[in-house]
Write a structure and sequence with these properties.
This protein has about 850 residues and is mainly alpha-helical. It contains 31 helices and 8 strands. About 60% of the residues lie in helices and about 5% in strands.
C-alpha cells in the first residue's frame, strides 16, 4: 500500500472518522454534532459536545457504514496473517472490499477441499481413459466431459486468484502463469477429443500432477518439489562429471578390454557406454564382467576400478552434493519464511494501531481479526490465546506480543485441574453418571493398568510367534487363543474409551491403531477370514515403546517420528513423478510387450518374457508394461528399485528403438535425486535431533503425559473467573471454586520451524534485528510523508471551510443591502464595509479570530436596489 493508504484507512471525506469522530449536520445545516468510535468499532455518542449542548446521536446508516469499514479493516488484517501463513507475496496484497472477499473465499477450507478433490479426480481419470482398466470401456465423450467440468472449476479458482493479484502483477507469480497455461492446453486437448470422439496421443495428460501440486494441502509436497528443482543446477555439475568419466571408461573398454574377443556386453562403444551405465547401478554385476574375465583375467581390474570410482566415490559425492544443497536451501527458505511472517505481523499491527490511533490491540480488535483468520476458533480458546499472548497484560497486545501469533493460535486448549490433569470429559454429567465413569477413569490412570497393558502386549507377541512357527490354525487351541486376545483387547479399548471420551481417545495414534485392529479382527470372526482374525496380534508393534529405555533407541525412534511428515511429502512427490512418467509410458509403450516378445538375441532378454509357470523363475517379465496406469506404477517402482531394471528396459528397446533408453535414463536420474532428497531428510533430522539435545541432556520422556513430549509444545495459564466467565460455556467451576481462577493447558505439535529456530538461534536474532531496523527506517520515511500529506490536507480543509464561511457571510450582507442599501453604506461613498472579525461565526458559536476568517474589514461595492431588481 502507498503511504497515504497505509496511514489513512478511510476516505478523504471521512477524515474525522480517523480521528475518532465524525461531523454531522442537523436539519438547519449550521450546527455540528460529534460522536466517538469505541475500541470495538461501534459508535457511541457522548452526552455533551464542546459547546455544552447535548449531542445528536448518529443515524443507524452511518453507524452501519462505520462498522462495515471496521470489518473491512479486520479482513485486511487477517489477509496479512494468511499471506504469512501461505507465503503469498505482498505485492499482490488485496485492499479493496471485493478483493478481500475473493481472497477469503479462495482461502476457505471448503474451497481448498474442493480444489484438492478436483485435482485428484482429474488424475484418477487416467484409470478410466483408454487404455484403462481391462474389461472397463467408457465412451470418450463421457470422461472428457468430466475432465472439462473439473477444468472449469479449476479455472474459476485461477480467476479468483487473479482477481486480487491483478493481471499486471502476474509476471511476479510464475506458478499461476504455469497453471493458466496448463489448464488452457488441457482444455483445448479435451475439446478436440470431445469433438472428434476419438482418443489421439494425449501426452498433455502428464501435466496433471502440476495441478494437484498447486493445491493448498500439497504445500509441503510443493516445497520438496521446489527443493528438487532448485538442487538441479548443483547436481548437474556432478552428472556431467559422472558422464565424462563414464565416456572415458567406455572408450577404454571398447579399445582395450573387448578388442580381441566378441564380448556380448562390450562389442561397441555404444554397447560399452550402455553396459557401464547399468553397471553403475550394479544391476548387471557381475554378469557384465564374466565374458571378459573368462577371456582375459586382468580385465577384472578394469571392472573393480570402475565400480570403486563410480559406485563408491562419485555416487556418494552426488549424495553429498544433494545433501549440501538441501541444507542450504532449507536454511535459505527458513530465513525467508521467518522474515516474511514477521513482516506481515508488523504490517497487521501497524494497520490496526494507525486506525485506532493507539498503541496496542485490544481484545475486541483481536477477536475481529480472528473472525477471519481462525473462523472456527471458539470464544474460550480465543480468550485463552489472547491472554497468553498478552503475558498477563489483558488490556492490549503490543507488537512483540503479536510476533508469536502464528504459534499460539495453533494451540489446542483444554481445562486442567491443579495437578495439570485434564478435566474429565464427563465432569458436567449428573452425579450418578459422574461416579459411573470415575471408576474406570481412575483405573486407567493407575500404574497397575499400564503394567497389565504392557504385559498383555508381551503375551500377544509370544502368541503371534507361536502361531507363526507352528502355523496350524485349524487346531481348536489356536482359535481359542485368538478369541481370548480379541476379548482382552476389546476390554482394554473399552476402558480407555470410557476414560478419555470419544473425542480425546482418537487423538492418539496408538489408540486408533488398536481400534482399527480390533474392528478388523471382529470382522474376520464374522466372515471367517483367518487373515483378518490374527490382525489383533499386530498390536505388538506398541512394544516399540520399550526401546525408548535406551538412549540410542530413543534417538532413532525420535528421528523416525519426526520424519513422518517429511517422508509423506517425499512419497507424494514420488507418486506424482510416477504419474508423469506413467502417462508418457502409456502413450509410447502401451501394448509393446507381451508373452513371447523380445526374441532378438542382441538384447539377451527373450527367456525373461516367456509365459512360464510358477517354477519358471525367469518368466513373467511381460507383466512389467505400460498398458494401464496401475501396471505403469508397478513397472516404475521396479525400475526405481534398480534390481534387473535393465531387463525391463531392454524389453522395450527390442520392440521399439534404442532411443527409448533416454526415457529410462532420465527417469533413473530423477528418481535418484528424489531418493537422495529422502536420505537428506533422514540425515538432516538426525543431525537436528543430536544438535538440539547433546549427550541426551535435558530431554523429556515421551511416555510422561504430565510433562508432555519433546514433540509437543505445552503451555499453561491461569484465567480469572471474571476474565472468561462470559466466554466459557464448557467451564467446570465446581471443581475448585475457592481459588478464583481456572487453569488451561494449550498444546501443539512442534514443527520443523520450531527446531530450526533453536538450531539457528544466533542467526535468527541477527535476521530479526536487521528486519526491525529496516522496518523502522521505512516507517520513519512513510511517517514523514504521511505527516506532510496530513498537514497539507488539514490546511486545505481549513482554507476551504474559511472561504465557504466568508462567502456565506458576504451573501447574507449582500441580501440585506439589496433590501435596504442605505444601512450598509456607512460613509456614503458607495461601498459596503464588512468586518469579518465581528460577524463570522466560529464552529463553537463565537467570533472567529484566526486564519483567513480574520482578514479585517472588507470594502464591497454598494448594490443599487433598482439594478438588482432588474437583474432578478
Amino acid at each position: 500500500m502507498d503511504a497515504e493508504a497505509r496511514y489513512h484507512l478511510f476516505s478523504e471525506e471521512d477524515t474525522g472518522e480517523r480521528e475518532g469522530y465524525r461531523e454531522t449536520r442537523n436539519n438547519s445545516g449550521s450546527d455540528h454534532q460529534l460522536y466517538s468510535i469505541n475500541d470495538g468499532g461501534r459508535a457511541t455518542s457522548p452526552e455533551y459536545g464542546p459547546d455544552g449542548e447535548p449531542l445528536q446521536r448518529p443515524t443507524s446508516a452511518r453507524v452501519f457504514a462505520q462498522q462495515e469499514k471496521w470489518q473491512a479493516m479486520y479482513q485486511e488484517a487477517a489477509v496479512y496473517l494468511l499471506e504469512g501463513l501461505y507465503n503469498d507475496k505482498l505485492d499482490s496484497h488485496p485492499n479493496q472490499p471485493d478483493d478481500l472477499r475473493a481472497y477469503h473465499f479462495a482461502h476457505s477450507t471448503p474451497f481448498h477441499v474442493l480444489d484438492l478433490v478436483a485435482g485428484v479426480l482429474l488424475m484418477l481419470l487416467a484409470a478410466l481413459e483408454d487404455p484403462g482398466v481391462a474389461g472397463i470401456s467408457i465412451p470418450y465423450r463421457a470422461y472428457t466431459a468430466v475432465e472439462l467440468c473439473l477444468l472449469l472449476f479449476l479455472s474459476f479458482n485461477v480467476f479468483l486468484r487473479v482477481r486480487w493479484i491483478k493481471v499486471r502483477n502476474l509476471r511476479r507469480h510464475p506458478r499461476i502463469i504455469i497453471k493458466i497455461v496448463i489448464i488452457f492446453v488441457m482444455v483445448i486437448d479435451g475439446l478436440v477429443v470431445f469433438g472428434q470422439n476419438f482418443n489421439h496421443i494425449r501426452v498433455v495428460r502428464a501435466l496433471r500432477p502440476f495441478i494437484v501440486l498447486d493445491s493448498y494441502y500439497f504445500k509441503g509436497v510443493r516445497r520438496v518439489a521446489r527443493q528438487i528443482i532448485q538442487a538441479i543446477p548443483a547436481v548437474m555439475y556432478m552428472v556431467v562429471l559422472i558422464l565424462f568419466v563414464m565416456v572415458l571408461f567406455s572408450a577404454f573398454a571398447s579399445m582395450v578390454v573387448a578388442h580381441d574377443h566378441d564380448d556380448p556386453f562390450l562389442h561397441s562403444f555404444t554397447a560399452c557406454f550402455y553396459s557401464l551405465f547399468v553397471l553403475m547401478t550394479t544391476a548387471n554385476f557381475p554378469d557384465v564382467m564374466m565374458p571378459s574375465y573368462n577371456n582375459q583375467s586382468w580385465s577384472v581390474l578394469f571392472f573393480i576400478v570402475y565400480v570403486c570410482v563410480m559406485v563408491f566415490i562419485l555416487l556418494n559425492l552426488l549424495l553429498a552434493v544433494v545433501f549440501s544443497s538441501f541444507q542450504d536451501l532449507e536454511k535459505t527458505k527458513f530465513r525467508k519464511l521467518l522474515i516474511h511472517k514477521r513482516k506481515v505481523i508488523m504490517l497487521m499491527y501497524d494497520l490496526i494501531t494507525r486506525a485506532t490511533g493507539e498503541d496496542g490491540i485490544t481484545f475486541e480488535h483481536f477477536s475481529g481479526i480472528m473472525k477471519y483468520y481462525k473462523p472456527r476458533m471458539g470464544r474460550r480458546d480465543l480468550r485463552c490465546v489472547y491472554l497468553y499472548l498478552a503475558r498477563g497484560n489483558s488490556d492490549r497486545l503490543s507488537r512483540s506480543d503479536c510476533y508469536r501469533i502464528y504459534e499460539v493460535t495453533e494451540l489446542k486448549w483444554i481445562q486442567v485441574d491443579r495437578l495439570f490433569n485434564q478435566v474429565p470429559w464427563y465432569s458436567n454429567f449428573p452425579a450418578c453418571l459422574f461416579q459411573l465413569f470415575r471408576g474406570p477413569d481412575a483405573f486407567v490412570r493407575s500404574k497397575l493398568f499400564s503394567f497389565l497393558s504392557y504385559f498383555l502386549l508381551l503375551c500377544s507377541f509370544v502368541a503371534m510367534i507361536y502361531i507363526a512357527v507352528w502355523n496350524d490354525y485349524g487346531r481348536v487351541d489356536y482359535v481359542v487363543l485368538v478369541s481370548v486376545f480379541v476379548t482382552l483387547c476389546g476390554l482394554e479399548v473399552l476402558l480407555k474409551l470410557l476414560s478419555a471420551g470419544p473425542i480425546r481417545y482418537f487423538l492418539l495414534f496408538w489408540n486408533m491403531w488398536d481400534m482399527a485392529l480390533l474392528v478388523l479382527s471382529l470382522v474376520g470372526f464374522g466372515t471367517g477370514i483367518y487373515a483378518l482374525q490374527v490382525l489383533v496380534f499386530m498390536r505388538s508393534f506398541r512394544l516399540l515403546k520399550i526401546f525408548q529405555l535406551k538412549q540410542r533407541y530413543r534417538d532413532v525412534i525420535s528421528t523416525v517420528v519426526g520424519l513422518v511428515p517429511q517422508m509423506g511429502n517425499v512419497v507424494m512427490v514420488i507418486i506424482l513423478l510416477y504419474y508423469f512418467f506413467a502417462i508418457i509410458g502409456i502413450e509410447a509403450f502401451s501394448g509393446k510387450v507381451f508373452p513371447g516378445c523380445c526374441q532378438s538375441p542382441e538384447f539377451m532378454v527373450a527367456t525373461y518374457y516367456k509365459k512360464g509357470n510358477v517354477s519358471n523363475e525367469t518368466g513373467f517379465y511381460f507383466l512389467n508394461n505400460f498398458d494401464s496406469i496401475l501396471q505403469s506404477y508397478v513397472t516404475l517402482f521396479e525400475l526405481m528399485v534398480i534390481n534387473n531394471w535393465w531387463i525391463v528396459m531392454n524389453g522395450f528397446v527390442s520392440e521399439t528403438s534404442g532411443w527409448v533408453r533416454v526415457f529410462f535414463f532420465v527417469y533413473y536420474f530423477l528418481s535418484l535425486m528424489v531418493l537422495n532428497i529422502l536420505v537428506s531428510f533422514i540425515l538432516d533430522a538426525f543431525v537436528f535431533h543430536l544438535a538440539l539435545s547433546p549427550n541426551g541432556e535435558g530431554r523429556e520422556e515421551i511416555t510422561s503425559s504430565k510433562k508432555g513430549s519433546k514433540y509437543y509444545h505445552t503451555v499453561r495459564i491461569k484465567v480469572g473467573y471474571n476474565e472468561i466467565s462470559d466466554d466459557l460455556s464448557q467451564a467446570t467451576f465446581f471443581m475448585f471454586p475457592a481459588e478464583g481462577y481456572l487453569l488451561f493447558q494449550g498444546q501443539r505439535r512442534l514443527t520443523r520451524e520450531d527446531f530450526s529456530i533453536q538450531m539457528y538461534s544466533g542467526e535468527v536474532e541477527t535476521w530479526l534485528e536487521e528486519l526491525e531496523l529496516e522496518f523502522r527506517n521505512v516507517e520513519a520515511d512513510l511517517g514523514s510523508s504521511a505527516r506532510h500529506m496530513m498537514h497539507n490536507r488539514r490546511k486545505y480543509n481549513t482554507i476551504r471551510s474559511d472561504i465557504t464561511r466568508n462567502l456565506l457571510v458576504v451573501r447574507r450582507y449582500v441580501e440585506d443591502i439589496i433590501r435596504s442599501p442605505e444601512e450598509g453604506d456607512n460613509d456614503g461613498d458607495g461601498f459596503l464595509i464588512i468586518n469579518l472579525d465581528e460577524v463570522a461565526p466560529s464552529e463553537n458559536g463565537s467570533a472567529s479570530s484566526n486564519g483567513a476568517a480574520t482578514a479585517g474589514p472588507v470594502r464591497l461595492p454598494a448594490v443599487d436596489q433598482d439594478a438588482a431588481a432588474a437583474a432578478d
